């Protein structure tokens, strides 16, 4: 890995965006490396959580300008689809992090801009310290936040997403907490690390299969738009519940409760 640092500790795979001189801007190479490490983490039976953060107290300042310049050269050479593929590849990254069965925790510091903003919105849990500054600056550069917008709407709602995306205004960490962009605001880096460990401890107490199933149900629920679809979702969820309660985790959870001990998945 050249653009990220990866380390697995206990139940968590830690991925650190590591281009500090560019404030951890996301390059195509970084996208490829993040997707590779995500796939490896999903295959590791011990891993339940993925922790995403940036090196040297910045999360991510957005997309990489060098990739934009290379794409411009490609377009000049007659490849009219080069910008489409560049932009869509980043969307694939956010889709994968959004829908992975792992629990994604974004640990946010400093710049959380553009693509970094989108990544933060794709996380299941987003925690930040007071150094954070959030923005969607694309329209000020003559561009739409094309791949980011759906994830922002899902996180903060259409009204706030319109305000942020259509003005490019910066939002501080306290404002981000108030609109639901982040879930927890800590005073400093030390408190941020403490909060991360608390979240990992809470995830460790949950059964891996139940976590994955619950996340899938929640994501599916967000797409329900009518009563017929809701009934179908609830039918499917009931089937998943039935399988779970009759499966190994359900039986182990019940035994552990009755025997007043920790379940076997809690390390």
UniProtKB/TrEMBL annotation:
Report TM segments: none
Q: What protein family does this chain belong to? A: Belongs to the enoyl-CoA hydratase/isomerase family.
Record InterPro entries: ClpP/crotonase-like_dom_sf, Enoyl-CoA_hydra/iso, Enoyl-CoA_hydra_C, Enoyl-CoA_Hydratase/Isomerase
- Signal peptide range equals none
Q: What is this protein called?
A: Enoyl-CoA hydratase/isomerase family protein
What species is this protein from? Microbulbifer variabilis
Coiled-coil positions are none
Domain of life per record: Bacteria
């Amino acid at each position: 890995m050249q653009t990220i640092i990866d380390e697995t500790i206990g139940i968590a795979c830690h991925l650190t965006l590591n281009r500090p001189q560019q404030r951890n801007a996301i390059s195509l190479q970084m996208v490829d490396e993040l997707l590779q490490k995500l796939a490896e983490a999903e295959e590791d039976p011990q891993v339940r959580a993925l922790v995403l953060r940036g090196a040297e107290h910045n999360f991510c300042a957005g997309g990489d300008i060098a990739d934009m310049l290379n794409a411009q050269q490609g377009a000049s050479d007659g490849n009219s689809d080069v910008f489409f593929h560049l932009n869509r590849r980043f969307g694939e990254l956010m889709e994968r992090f959004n829908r992975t069965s792992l629990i994604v925790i974004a640990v946010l510091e400093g710049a959380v801009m553009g693509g970094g903003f989108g990544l933060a919105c794709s996380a299941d849990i987003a925690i930040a310290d007071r150094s954070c500054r959030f923005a969607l600056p694309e329209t000020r550069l003559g561009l739409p936040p094309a791949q980011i917008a759906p994830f922002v709407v899902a996180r903060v709602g259409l009204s706030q997403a319109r305000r942020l995306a259509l003005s490019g205004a910066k939002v501080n960490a306290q404002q981000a907490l108030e609109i639901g962009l982040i879930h927890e605001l800590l005073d400093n880096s030390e408190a941020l690390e403490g909060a991360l460990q608390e979240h990992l401890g809470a995830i460790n107490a949950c059964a891996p299969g139940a976590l994955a199933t619950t996340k899938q149900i929640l994501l599916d629920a967000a797409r329900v738009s009518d009563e017929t679809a809701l009934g179908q979702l609830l039918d499917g969820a009931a089937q998943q519940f039935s399988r779970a309660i009759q499966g190994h985790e359900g039986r182990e959870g019940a035994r552990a409760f009755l025997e007043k001990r920790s379940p076997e998945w809690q390390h």
